[in-house]
Write a structure and sequence with these properties.
By secondary structure, this protein is mainly alpha-helical. It has 8 helices and 3 strands, in the order ααβββαααααα. The chain has a 3-stranded antiparallel sheet. A hairpin with an 8-residue loop joins β2 and β3. Keywords: DNA recombination. One of its GO terms (molecular function) is DNA binding.
Length: 186
């Protein structure tokens, strides 16, 4: 799905960056919309979320792959806004160079579903958040770090993402079972 926007138009590059950012960080839709240029620190590989849920500030790491995508996007963004609104502070501007709306973002996902012939599937900003969280855990990330990344006040909110199917449980069991993973056993 990340390859759905293969083109080199500003909108395709922007939308690829948006989807990648959701998948790479698990940020909320409103957090993405409110994201300003000053919130991205390419040097420290951190994104500052100023207006998270409950108006709490937090910092979310940027992966190496996401950093490359962001750098490419920000170059195109600057060119795109040159004759529209070069002073736009938002990372992801609308077509007119203003702050993107939630309905514009939802429309992007509807269009994506249609183009990929996935009308029966649920694809939304929150779906990407859930996908990030579940993959973070399946790849060996701990739930306590995930709690901080997602901006959850309590661990119970993060536990929602622990719902694994039987095959995922079996894979995790095989990978992390202490008895099966000790050299002294053999």
């Amino acid at each position: 799905m990340l390859n759905a926007f293969k083109g080199d138009t500003f909108y395709e590059i922007r939308n690829r960056c948006i989807i990648s950012l959701f998948f790479s960080t698990g940020i909320r839709m409103n957090e993405l919309i409110e994201l300003k240029l000053q919130d991205i620190n390419i040097t420290t590989d951190l994104i500052r979320i100023q207006k998270g849920k409950g108006m709490k500030e937090r910092f979310v790491p940027i992966s190496r792959a996401m950093k490359r995508i962001l750098i490419e996007y920000l170059k195109h963004r600057q060119e795109y806004l040159a004759d529209k609104n070069p002073d736009c502070p938002y990372v992801f501007p609308s077509r007119t160079g203003q702050k993107m709306t939630s309905s514009a973002l939802e429309s992007m996902f509807k269009k994506l579903k249609h183009e990929l012939n996935l009308q029966g599937e649920k694809i939304s900003c929150h779906t990407w958040r859930h996908t990030f969280a579940k993959n973070y855990l399946l790849n060996g990330g701990d739930i306590f770090s995930l709690q901080k990344i997602l901006g959850h006040a309590d661990l119970e909110s993060t536990r929602i993402y622990l719902q694994l199917n039987d095959q995922e449980i079996k894979t995790q069991f095989s990978r992390y079972n202490p008895l099966d993973n000790k050299d002294w056993l053999y």
